[in-house]
Amino acid sequence: MKKIIPLFIMTIVAMACKNNNEISAENYKDDNITSKIDSLLKLMTIEEKVGQMNQYNGFWDLTGPSPKGGTAAKKYEHLRKGWVGSMLNVRGVEQVRAVQKIAVEESRLGIPLIIGFDVIHGYKTLSPIPLAESASWDLEAIEQSSRIAAIEASSVGINWTFAPMIDIGRDARWGRVMEGAGEDPYLGSLIAKARIKGFQGDDLSSVNTIAATAKHFAGYGFSEAGREYNTVDIGTSTLHNVVLPPFKAAVDADVKTVMNSFNEINGVPVTGSPYLQRDILKGEWNFNGFVISDWASIREMISWGHAKNKSEAAKIAVTAGSDMDMEGYVYIEELAQLVKDDVIKEDLLDDAVRRILRVKFELGLFDDPYRYCDEVREKEMIGHPKHHEAVLDMAKKSIVLLKNENNLLPLKKEGQKIALIGALASDKNSPLGSWRLASDDNTAVSVLEGMQAYKGNSLVYKKGADVSVGKTAFVEEVRINTTDKSEFQSAITAAKSADVVVMVLGEHGFQSGEARSRTNLQLPGVQQELLEAVYKVNSNIVLVLNNGRPLAVSWADAHIPAIVEAWQLGTQTGNAVAQVLYGDYNPSGKLPMTFPRGVGQVPIYYNYKNTGRPKNVEGNVFWSHYIDSENTPLYPFGHGLSYTTFEYSNLKLNGSIFNIGNDITVSVDVKNSGDRDGKEVVQLYIRDLVGSVTRPVKELKGFDLVEIKAGDTKTITFTLDKTTLGFYNNQGEYIIEPGEFKVFVGGSSAQTLEADFELD
Fold first, then answer.
1. What are residue 232's DSSP bridge partners?
2. Which of 294, 325, 374, 466 is catalytic?
3. Contact (CB, 8 A) for 82 and 51
4. Catalytic annotation on 294?
5. Residue 14 — pLDDT band, cuts 50, 70, 90?
6. pTM of the entire predicted model
7. Considering only CA atoms, which of 579, 149, 147 is closest in space to residue 396?
């Protein structure tokens, strides 16, 4: 492909590359990129620098006539002037090439755009929602899932994703828990690394990799009352030990961009927090990528009452270290004048622009701005059969068997009458989940279709009741059916004559995600009534849950013999569910978030603090508890059953007293005591009994996903070292203190063997 690059850029490249005519892999080393950036910065006007810090949303048919008047015309004009550094929501090779051509061939310096998009759990071919993937505890599969997403997204011209979301979430009311890795910072950190590696690969300049974004920095998952965009009020111990570790892991994994969040911490919107962005991220952690605001979050500091107008918001944000303004119109309208009036120094712009240009160089966009614009790749990569195989594998690994009384599962493959009930069972749209902007509606394999592939049984489907009413869309509230029970009777009749009833109940895919906070975590609408009505005529029920967050299903746990957490599993949902129900895949998933007994327990999480009154020792009411519920969760973090059973024994440590700095070896025997081969997530937790900052009752510090054949025993070994035995004090310093510890090993955070050791 012919490259049309302005003379300025050609000169810079030639100077930086000396006698080389092309930019080779060697030239992408840091020193070479720095010299190119420095050369380019010298040519840029203040307005062009501000332009690199400006991101616009897609706006019109880029292959059609130029817009006349209005916002679209203004954006078009800014593109031609070089006042746009990035576009988001422009996708498809034809559209991306058109907008890139304006930036590269019509602006003065021809600096290429970076093209962003929310590639959250796939592009066209969808994997399970991220919370579901996290339930696999399979880091290789999670990395592969992001790899598939990057391949498809890059084939349509996208080179930057606003993922992964690595907020720790303890509150299931918050809809965006579906987008994260759950409640634990250790597991969340490892999953963050896996997803970033999947998106960015080993060579960011490859045409099938995309830059990743660690979001939301920081504390967004702790929004008060689980309400979207709300304030956050946490202590420094929680900030440093729970919220920040996944972000530090992301920086260590060389994530290219970080997105700040909508919330405030300590009375300061984090978009304007120099402590988080300058001191910690860019200072202490030496992050050399760039920070992108969340959508208009710079402008929203006015609503917070932290800035009186856009000019002040721009000053606060750029000083704090927010490098690019996402569709906020603040930087592009205010920054240049602030520099000219000497309110802020141009050095702040230079720092931001250096960071942005660096990522563009690393992506190879200065070498070939159209490197991501290949119609052949676009046609070949979208929906590739291997991608469907991969997302099916990921979906099966994400399913969690919560309960299986009397071994009702797996289903027999022949000779049974099965009644399949629930609107979600035939739904081909809801299983796609939230955040699937590029996927086509109604393209999921439904559970009905998946079960129909098994021909040995008699299968009757009845809807029973709708979950939602009317149109469902990403930008609209889902209206829930709370009254219509007109089809209950047909479902009840089908259940009466069935050997087994499979009920698919839960949330619509658009009931979780951004701006989908809930105060009720039970089954929405009339579904609970439907479940109880069917139970009255046939208790032999397999409940398949479709949801994007932990639900409070205490009634079901008390009455229904088999419960399967099937989340929203993406394109291959139905095939994955059917293969698990029929036993062609033995479930191995474990919960990445605690399931509460009721919403009143929320936020609930396994790594809580002991409190000063943890037990009822005197027989009175004065201890930490509820008067109407147990303290314990319905299903704990790390819980998940299999069609086989595992026995733990012979927990050993290589000593009882250790010097600080020495490694501790922990081993345990795990036997597959059932009659099926299976996988088990062996989990290791510790407790530091006494600390200068109080420590949780348990902290996950290791896990191993192992496959064990029926009847076999494997010895699993873990190592505890200085990276796992310490914690952050309230000054943000990582310390390891002497004292007594406990170590726990088991199949969940609740079922464990226990041993003691001491650090001297």
1. 265
2. 294
3. yes
4. yes
5. very low
6. 0.95
7. 579
